[in-house]
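Meet my pick.
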Amino acid sequence: MAKVQITQKRSIIKRPETQQRTIQALGLGRVNKSVEVELTPQIAGMITKVNHLVSVKEL
């Protein structure tokens, strides 16, 4: 599987609960925090759900 770097670019304040939980499940929670994860179908779906809050870079 390919690895991707996910960086949170926008705050989760005043966002729906499902989006807040998705950000937490990705291991994020603060603006400009980054994590490296394997790009699985589950992670890809989570990224799609919060793509307006994060940026994704392929490694």
